Amino acid sequence: MNMIHSFFSANGYVFELLFATAFYIWGQKHRKNFVMRVFTVVIGMLMVSMLWQLLPIKNPLTDSMRTAVFFVLCTLGVTFCFHVNFMESAFYNTAAAATQHLCFKAASSVVMLFTRNGIEISVLNDIVYVAAIVVFEAVCGLFFGNKLRKESLKTTHTSSPTVLLLLIGMQLCTNWFQNLFDKYDVGYKPYTVFVMFDMICCLFLLMLQCEIVRNQKEQESNAIMQHLLYQQKQQMKLSQETIDLINVKCHDIKNQIATLGNNIPEDELADLKRAIDIYDTAFKSGNEVLDVLLMEKFMQCENKKIRLDCMIDGELLSFMKKSDVYALFGNAIDNAIEAVDKINDEEKRCINIRVKKSRGMILIHVENQYLGELSFEEGLPQTTKKDKRYHGFGMKSIRMIVEKYHGFLSAGSKDNIFSLDILLPVPK
User: Fold this and answer.
1) For residue range 82-97, what is the model confidence (pLDDT) as tens digits?
2) Which of 49, 174, 197, 327 could link 11 by a cystine bridge, Cβ 3.0 to 4.6 Å?
């Protein structure tokens, strides 16, 4: 019994660190022979820990070196067991080491309260410590681990090696100062103040990592949206040229039909005229860019047998950049077409678009039916596609354009009808 107690007392740090790491690495893709790899890492770290106990010199420096060595071993162990690179693993393990240190201090403080109240039963104190650190690490790991995973799309680490080194340095410094305070008897009150400061530093470090990941995600999202907006701007120019060319050709074909009409069978002539009418349809909303876009989307809807019902006063949008008008309505209509195209009932295959002035504001309303369930996050519908990394930016770009013009966006669904409402202030 004493041997078991001594073993866990001497090597408990390894188990605490690995337990904390599990909360941050959980969900990553396993490498082949995963169980065997994990077993190898655990045994390897325990062997290093036992060998470390044989060192003849023990002081704050060797204790700090021990922390650094196990940080590196755990980082390498994660890359050995999971499909993550070294920087990702180091980022995860910085959070895990900060969690272990924070919970170690918290659990030790709980045990200290017992001993100061006269409870000095070794076995009882050990049980209290183990129970406390397991609970603290589980709560802390679940909260910050879930937060890091939620904020990440694919990677969950900073792309800057300098920032990562600073994070690792901050975490290792907490252990260095702890070892110094443990060596010198500074008294109960100063030590308590240091413990509180130490725990706050670890907590701030974890919060900083979450903020870094959130900021990294936003930068990546903004970069993708800017690229999409640029592509839409180029598409707008191409669409204008294409529509103009189609109209010219349709006009030429009409002249030829007028000349050769008597030589073409009536049924074929009717079909030909009907086809030309589709491409010769002209939207006159009062906004040239919007007319080009609506013509393009009308042809898409006609091909998919979707009704596009528009009542638009395009002159109200004359203050907006052409590329913004194209991107805003293009994304809104594309999302509606994608949703309606899944509906088999012809009566429900309809998209309604309204642009009008209401109570001193410009109201943009897009409405369509859909199948299935919609989930919303931060007021926007979430993409139903599996690859969320490169999808779901349409609504975000719409919101970005609306905010650019100091407007308001509202999206909602009721009875399988999705509605997008945008209010834009009329410029003075």
Assistant:
1) 988 888 888 888 989 8
2) 49
